[in-house]
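Q: My labmate handed me this sequence with no annotations at all. I'd like to see what the chain might look like in three dimensions before we decide whether it's worth expressing. Could you predict it?
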Amino acid sequence: MSPAAEATAWLGLTATRGQHPVFGDPGATARSALQDPDTALVAAVLPPPGTRAYTPDLLTPKPVTDLDDQLDRIAATPAEAVAFQVRSTGRPLPHSVRTAVDDGTFAARAANGLHRFWTKAVAADWAALKATMDADLATRARTMALGGVGALLSSLHEAVSWADGALVINSAWQEEFTLSNVEIVCVPAVLAWPRLSIQLCDPGDAVLGYPAVHIGAQPARDPAVDRLVGTTRAALLRDLTVPRSTATLATRHHLSPPTISYHLKVLQRSGLVTAHRDGQYVLYQRTDSGQALAR
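A: Here is what I predict for the chain of 295 residues:
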């Protein structure tokens, strides 16, 4: 798992006011983190979400242990590597970025900025994100056990295949690498879902980020819960593993916002969901009681 990759993906959405296909708007708390100059420095070199533009590899080092390890490696990136990668984005860079690259402070400030963004916008949800990644890794382990490494690699994304000792990835770039005794880390992406990312500039830091399975899939129905609270409210309860707004739920369940609001109020009065305001949105999420019922 790559905490740095998850934080970077969420920061990119936040900086461009983008919407995650499943989790929606990052929210006011995440946007407020951009007031920190070091966090804003990182955001300035990230490509718009959904584009195939280059993200400096130094921001998503190969995961070894935890976020602290990744941040230490970001901060220790040599100045010449920082300059090459940041300038390789091919995008106009603000004065603050150019200055930090030139005076050799970019790497340390980037590590600090990512840490502050993580603390403010990602850390509280890490347990849920990790659970999703754990489930993905269990699925991939079964695939590998039954079909081997080739079956595993070919299962990661429709653009990825393995044949005759070659890992083939269909992408906008036409490059060929010969990797010998090199570890390629395959990393499930949740906040970067459904993007496929390829990191091979430094073979010693090779990472293949792929969309985690089951993201966006509706949880399995339990007829007993349906009978207890009603089919619509049971579906909403199963979908509130993460905070969602009335508008988001209306879109996901093909119902009108007033209908969604009515059912949410019933669930809230029953103590099964809770609501809190995040900027202009009211977000709903199931409580511990709601979670126990939805299992």
